[in-house]
Amino acid sequence: MKKRIFKQGVALMLAAVLALPANVVPAEILDQKTGTEKPHIVLNQEAPIEKATDSNAKKEELTGTKVKIPDQKTGTEKPHIVLNQEAPIEKATDSNAKQEKTGGQIIYNIGSFNVHVVSEEDFENDLGDAYFEEDGSYTINIPEENPFFPYEVQFTYDGKTENEWFMNPEDSIEIDGHTFYVSASFDGTAVTQLTMDVAGQEVVVYPKEKEFTDGDGVALMSLLPLEERNLSVDLSGFSPIELTEVKPKTVFSGANEISDTSAILWRLRYSSDDSYYGDEKEIQAEYLDLGFHTSGSTNSYWEMIVGENDQLASSNIRYYVTAQVTDSEDWLIPNVTIQNEDGSTKAAYISSYRYSDYTSAMYSRRFSVYWIPDNKADRYREKEVSIKMNLGQFDKTSVADVKIQEIVNAGRLLDLQTVQDNGDLYIMGKTKASNGLGRIQLKAYDKNGAEIGSMYLNLYISANYDYISTNLYDKNGDSISYTQTEEYDEEDPWMEEKTIYNLGASYAENDTYRLVLTYQKAKESSTAHVLGAFIGRYESLDAAKAAGAADVKESLFNKEKGYEADFSKGVYVSVFAGDDGDKNPRRFIWHIFTRSDIILNDSTAVDFYGIKDAEGNPINCKVLDPSYGEYQDDYADYSYITILVDENADLTALAPEFTVGKGLKLYTSKEEVSGESLHDFSKGAVHYTASAENSKSAKNYWLQIIKPKQGESWLYMNSLADENSDTREENGVVYTTREVMLNGIHDYEHRIILANMGTEALSKLSVETEGNLFEFGDVLLDNYWTLKGKHDFSGYQGLERENISNIAKLKLFYIGDEINGQELAGTLTIKSDEKPVMVINLTGVVGDPGIVTTEIPDAVKYVHYGSMIQNSNKYDFNTVSYRITDGELPSGMELKPNGELYGVPLETGEFTFTVQMKNSYSEFANVTKEFTLKVVDNTDANVDSAVDQGYDLKERVPNILLSDNNDYTMTSIGVIEEWDNLTLDGKRLVEGVDFDAKSGSTRLTIRSQTLKANNQVGTHTLSAEFREKGTGNLKRAAQNYKVSTKSSGGSSGGGHSSSGRATVRADYGNIGADGAWVQDAKGWKCKAADGTWYTNCWKELTYQNEKSWYRFDAQGYLVTGWYQDNGTWYYMNPKSDGKLGKMMTGWQYINDIWYYFTENADDKQGAMFCKRWAEVPYNGTVEWYYFDENGTMKTDWLTQDENKFYLYPIADGTRGRMLTGWQKIGDNWYYFHEESDGNKGVLARRTKIGNYYVNSDGVWAK
After folding, report:
1. Which of 246, 684, 934, 1252 is paired with 333 by a 20 to 30 Å CA distance?
2. How far apart are CA 904 and CA 223, in angstroms?
């Protein structure tokens, strides 16, 4: 502990010598080796005092020099005595009987010694220790520097003892006709008085009450400062909401009131939350929320730091404050009223309720109400919830009104409001749900309308249901030891959970045991509501009775009988409960097994607590345990442990001492023995592996033992030793990478412990943040656990606690809810005197797994729809499921548990709904998000635009007449193996009845009667669903056609297939150089000069003076759109622009995707490029492009095997080209090989390009 020099002066009076505890003798006075006292300091050389001996027993025992001290009231000086500190005072004995009590004597004690104050006459007669002034007053001189007021003094007189408080340095107290004052020394470095404003009332903060003793001999004055002090404050009588806005009213530093020169930082003591709250700019501007830990308690415990809001400010003083509070467990009283069908109401039975405020997080206060429905209908009837504020138990409350300032999240609670009724305050709300959770912000006001409190409160309303507990006994009915678990078995044909009773090695699993069930209906325990119990698995009560199953209710629910069986192979038990007459009673089912597995420990915890040298001698050390406490460091799940030793330790041969749990073994290359297994720690961390007893669980630990470097500074951090951190030093700056996980597993916080393990200080240490990790404003550095560049970071001074000033902490925390488990990066740059000493590249995950989809695409009526609500989950141990909590989907649609919005919408409109994503891992929060699905009408344009690329139609069903008896074919280029189903106007058609499906892409031939849709005239929509191979993503092909009573003379175009005959009108008006083009209702044909039709062939024809390739199908119709021939795709112009059916070549932009088709007539002209690199021309340049298996020109990052490429993504006329050389992508620089040696365009990694190094991700490490 850093020492401060006490200011000597008139305050060093009699009490200074007599009243200090003996255990505060300073190091300067005690001999460090022997513990004996060194010669005392003589404070007043003019008045030496001889020690009392037998030879001078008649001399005065105490002499001194009269001095003048200021009178506290008048400002005049009063005489008093200053004693020499070499004069110890003996206690009264038979030999000095003259020191007996006299009339008018008053004894005071300020700690550990009684001081007898007598009249001046008695004092002259060798009685007492000090004497009263002429006016009968006396001034007590307080020896410690900066004493905290109120100041407690004990007085004894007339046979009674009283403890009195001097409220401030100017205060006086009347004792038995005498006025007592105090005098003290202040240097302005500490808070010496503090009062709080609670709801407009001033409350005094007191120091901890003293335990007064009367010690022997002289207690010497300590020159060490008090850096930690204990205070108390009486906050009883105030309501919890008033305690949320406690404000420092008067704060004195020494004799001077301070307002804006210091900060008060505070936190709940004994809490795992190490965050301090406060305002560093103005001490009296910040409210202190002390309304935590009041439920079920009459004391709350706080820690305050007064001084600078800077962890490196060595002048700060820490105060431990005990606050007396009124137990708030019953300050909220609920009532639930149910609305019956006939309009009447009834009160629901409240089984329990609880107000909790155990942690100091802003949103942690919660009021939970558990109610019991009388029947199933009650669960979903409208209920009015009222919560009365029981303010009558708080005798100091000033609350006159409470209002809801904000409804943060209403959840299922409706019409939330506060009301007053007969002077009482209520929170009111309604719900139709059996369970509801909402969050509100309440503000309290006094009778003048002034705000006196504010809190966020979570309201949770939940219905308690009936349940049945299971217990297992031996066949005699005696209790046995077991563990009960639930196990999901996918091999079980019923897919039920197994209830496993693991009996351990003490019992045989195949013996006979007695199963006993207990029915509990929330507020009562009986079997009155059990309608039947059966051995076996039954879907319903009626099914069990129909099967003739024996009802074993009477024995199964009777401990004296139970159901006895060998459960080792599994026994089903079905129970049905409810009220008499229930048509659908509640079903309970168990599949019960017994096992005799030995239960093995799965713990991998290792506690390193010390070190021994090669001779087995303990080494002085300090363990920085990263898993908890003041040295918590969240890196790598607390796997990197640091132990500090002094400069004399030999790191080459040290044996760590550790403890492990039952059955755990700790290994390096061999099994470790605590305090015996030696290792060389001079070369870095030693890797340990903990193997659990169950042989399944294991954990790695890396232990570093660090000693100081002499004559320099050395900034140390535990993750530097990770071989994946890419730690290196360049020009005196350390560069390193550190993974940060800001999610629910780690309480959305990440702590970094820093140590200066050099003996020289780091001057004015600061830290700066940079990168997208911090850009959103949701990830911040803690305002206290940071480095602000104002103070030096001390070097290593030793391992004793008072010397450890060379450790600091950085704390990152996530406060948002929009970053759902995304991978983000940032940089922490630590500087000394504005010069970087360490650059930490942060990578990792921010937030819990959540919904990342921001909006969903529009749907088209009668067309298949599939869209995923995507999430950011990447953890195998966490399973995600979805459900809709509010709103509704259009008819024909559903949300699957995996997040797929699926179906064929049967109505148009906008549909708003709320999706909840549930994380199975309890530490991850559940996420909700609102979406709006727009369903547009099934116009021709909307239906055609819904067709997915790669599933285009190359044959379409034409418009038909009601009199048409032909079957027609819709053919998609999608493969038949991916096709799933076909719908007509949203109704699923039956294969073999309504249509036939064949390969050859996907040929769906729809029957005539089906197409006419029950003779419905108008527009109809066909929609085919495909599931993409590999991904399972929904793809669709769709078209409209019309059914009419008479021919319109038009056609929907495209190919045609018929199993019947159709009469069409022919148009012979278009004659080409190579034949006559003819159009009928089904499409275009071409007749050769010899009068035959071109069929099932490619033909190069001249049309309007341009020679092009065309394709004709088996019926002779011109093929348009996509066409596959012997596994090769071609694209035939589908546009009626004078070039209909022409084979396209070169670059083609189709449905927002670029494709390339061979231009060279000698190289399979017109063939689509796919699964290949190609160096092709575009806009006058020749560049490399890549086309995937679907022929799509790729952009952005591309990974092939272990190589990565970057294809220019911006549509500026050069999109898709392969980039080479140095490229800035996002915020990082990358290098792609430029040489045409087989590696052109490949991303360079873990190498130097000239003088620049790129890391394993290819990023230039600056």
Report:
1. 246
2. 84
